[in-house]
Amino acid sequence: MNDKEHDTTVTAIRSGGPDPxxxxxxxxxxxxxxxxxxxxxxxxxxxxLERFGPNELETxxxxxxxxxxxxxxxxxxxxxxxxxxxxSVVAWFVERASVQPGSEGSEKLPFDAIVIVLILIVNxxxxxxxxxxxxxxxxxxxxxxxxxxxxxxxxQVRHIPTSQLVPGDILVLSEGDAVxxxxxxxxxxxxxxxxxxLTGESxxxxxxxxxxENAKALGDRTNMVFNGTAVTQGTxxxxxxxxxxxxxxxxxxxxxxxxxDDTTPLQKEMAKVSKVLGIAVCVxxxxxxxxxxxxxxxxxxxxxxxxxxxxxxxxxxxxxxxxTAILTVVLALGVQRMAEHxxxxxxxxxxxxxxxxxVICSDKTGTLTRNEMTVERVITASGEVSISGNGYAxxxxxxxxxxxxxxxxxxxxxxxxxxPEHIDQEVEAALGAGLMANDxxxxxxxxxxxxxxxxDPTEVSVIVAAxxxxxxxxxxxxxRVAEIPFTSERKRMSVIAxxxxxxxxxxxxxxxxxxxxxxxxxxxxxxxxxxxxxxDDRDAVIGQVKELSTQAYRTLGTARRPLEVSELAxxxxxxxxxxxxxxxxxxxxxxxxxxxxxxxxxxxIDPPRTEVKPSIAQAHKAGIRTVxxxxxxxxxxxxxxxxxxxxxxNVGEAAxxxxxxxxxxxxxxxxxxxxxxxxxxxxxxxALGDDRQALDKATAHTSVFxxxxxxxxxxxxDSLQRQGNIVAMTGDGVxxxxxxxxxxxxVAMGITGTEVTKESAKMILADDNFSTIxxxxxxxxxxxxxxxxxxxxxxxxxxxEVFTVFGGVVLSGFLGITQxxxxxxxxxxxxxxxxxxxxxxxxxxxxxxxxxxxTEDLMDRPPRKTTDSVIDKAMWxxxxxxxxxMAAVTLIGMDLHLPGGxxxxxxxxxxxxxxxxxxxxxGFTILVFAQMFNALASRSHLQSVFKGLFANAWLWAAxxxxxxxxxxxxxxxxxxxxxxxxxxSLEGWVECLGLxxxxxxxxxxxxxxLRIMARR
Length: 1016
What we know:
ATPase_P-typ_cyto_dom_N; ATP hydrolysis activity; ATP-binding; hydrolase
């Protein structure tokens, strides 16, 4: 094969075809132009490295900091204020130009414009600081690659930088190694690969080099090893077929780079509100200016300037300048509360999204389960026992099942919590044999008190069970002297151990697949005796294996065979050392693994977290559906889902039984009302093809998806989102990352989660506890309720300011708000006064409302639909109603202090300028007080203000601070000049308080009417 043909072959393999798992290794080696015995030469490897590039994952380009900062200004309300600022500056320049040098009448600086710009900058800085951390999901994936990899080159094993791996290289794998590329296995010995981070498989997968007959799912390609996984046992050699972005991890990285972040529902709603307010203000301003032009006309430049300043006043009055900052701070406070409950939120806007979640899609391994294999059942000739306790801590108790308990009671009168002697002997022997035929280990960290599994989790689970039952003490007298290792072809492992209390006794201990191991047994242990194994015994064991399999248990059989040391010399082909112990027995498996005595078997499972079931029930009560999406076996997924209440246990068991009997897809024949109880596999999802309607129907009713790939997870999340759901996706492995990022709210596991998943997620669970998600949902809902409260308060208050300005101009002739001998426009309140009101009332009171206590029925309500507006019709009704009342009492208060007004015709002392300043101070103060009363009223749409009136101490403190600052603005000389105020008399303060109180009274009357209507 020439270089061009070789490059073409390599490119074809890297780009997805042919599938290396379906190609014979000799043929694949020929296509890749490599000798499996010597590997590539350094020269050839260098040429391929230059041709195909380094074995690295591409990283996303970093967004410049200046661009991130400018993004904070992309808001219609900000644009409106910037336009208002520009108008204010132009008007100030024109006014300054028309004033004679040395005369008064113009501000030295454009105070309005400066204050508005400062507020915008402060808001932008706050937003930038909160969003400063750029997304690094693809970069995090590259960290998974091992820095050094063992390869065969020029006939020698070498360690090279992982980035220098090329297609055609031969990986030399051993226990503890990280796999650094996708490769086709061509030799192995007891090789097991931990693929949980890629496929979701909870236990290491046994690998063998045999060619597959047909295409398999990622988790079932037993002759392939994949980048980002790890070797937990054995050795092997594999031919590299894909590197860098062409590996399975690379494809995930590519999906991440093509998955865009969607804006949250709250962000979309705020953008909508901003547009509505902006358009409304512009329309109102144009209407007012047009009305003035028609009624009075513009006779001078001053008239035009006055009209433009009126537009500025309307903009300042309508726009809640502090809305962005308040929203940020309220969300930040919520994030702090969540952190106290182990939920770390990376993006503030995600808090509200989580509170609106209608579906939680959860990975199984490590999320709903403990990711710790546990022996729960032991079945022997005389019965079945259960072992309690989860995890690797050797703490638990042993008890009989109900049937075995009855047998035990009849046998020797013991109760169900005390094992009959014969069953106790059988259980001890079964676990003891599993303990001896074992390469795992259990380590106890004295500092942390934690138990750590060493080696295969399945083997460690047997060690833990043996310690729980005390079998480890009895079998500590045995010393291991020889081993016949486990292989995927043999499906069993045997060791020979010497009894240190009897040097003449050797024992063969074996463990393996029960149906395989049973074939090498001709006797069975009953109690402390041994009898011949009958066909009925064999049928019973096979039936027990099937029963445990339908319950999602992994089964492991154990057996033994006693040997006298003197017998070894009689066994053909067996060699012994000076002490009479056998050596190099791996080729004599047929001799030592014959005439075994069947002891029993264990049922092993990755148990669900005990705290998850009530959390799922609480989520269901809150109208939130839980969906399990896992790469694990359908039987295992169905069992765990049944235990946790995700699917109906009875129908779930029926589905598992049907699947175990090979009856095809239960989904196809299930009735519509039972669809949600079935488990679907990745193959069944593929069978749906591109039919979105069929996929949406499946995802709408199916709650467990097993044997799925990363592409399937994305399809499921996208389908649920198409149906109007707000989807939360939890995960810990690399295979979860694309779906976690694509979901409305991605949730990563903080302890077991991979770095890539954490970077892709918007929230991290520091305790890996599913229950924390439900607590976060509760917190998110409470935050959203509080956001609605302060939005009702802010917008109704700002609407009151708009109506005050609008009504003051349109009704100026009736209210006496005019300038004598002038045709210009006199605004009822100055722009600086309106800006001060917004700063005063938007800050402390709104923030205090953001931490208002949640109501008790928060988790009894269904989740908010994506079609529901944050500001609905009922809230708009509150906003308009309160805005009108607020403007009315403000203008009435001003009219009472102006001559020739609607409510008074009294002659007031002082110049007209003084009278106007006095009236503006009254209107200014009434509006502030009215908004304080509005803060109390806005805590609920229907509930009376007097219910829980003093529940929020922060709100009362904020009101006190706002009133105090208003007093300062009125009485401090420098400030009353800047804000155009004059000191008020005691009578004036009483008028302000009395008029503003009408806002609270009007709100209470409206709530009473609404409650009566609701009851009817």
